[in-house]
């Protein structure tokens, strides 16, 4: 199945070709049309299977209908376990954003560095990629607001739980509007992930790609 049959815009299809993404991976084939249809997703597939572009592309397509962002109110929140992943995911959003009909700004925030530049940068941001602890600090100082969130992504959710972020994740999720799209990605389907699935996802499409595929 080619990328052209998944519902992406011609501009994004050209961007994919430029990136040498010739065929969608199995997880991408399954999740891209479903995310475009505003379904909640539980996506399980091993590391390296292309989960990032699987949500980045349709989330960007869906955002094109968002006209503007209010000051310090973000539209999409991606929670990740580590600084490295925050930067990687932000980079993938930024590779594809120039191919949209209007400008979309993505910012990555994470701990271990000074908070002030992140507070300053949180103006006019549509997509925030964050580690849970630093996001809570930014929320405490009112540098960002989550009341306009329409999409939540939990990426490497298994690793977030392994690193002990469950309480932080729950505190953040409690601050979000109830009506939103939820996308949960993990390499493994553990009991903890099943529990988060029950708390966070609303009638999700469960997609599990087996290792040999
Ligand atoms: P995961 O999150 O599942 O571990 P990533 O999203 O990090 O995997 O993708 C792994 C690598 O595969 C990245 O370098 C990415 O650029 C590349 N990639 C993803 N999708 C495709 C595709 N359809 N065609 C070619 N390369 C791809
Ligand atoms: Mg990943």
UniProtKB/TrEMBL annotation:
Segments forming domain Helicase ATP-binding: 32-207
Keywords assigned by UniProt, alphabetized: ATP-binding, Helicase, Hydrolase, Nucleotide-binding
Cellular component GO terms held in the UniProt record: cytosol
Domain DEAD-box RNA helicase Q: 1-29
Motif extent (Q motif): 1-29
Any GO MF annotation of the entry: ATP binding
Similarity annotation: Belongs to the DEAD box helicase family.
Protein name: ATP-dependent RNA helicase RhlE
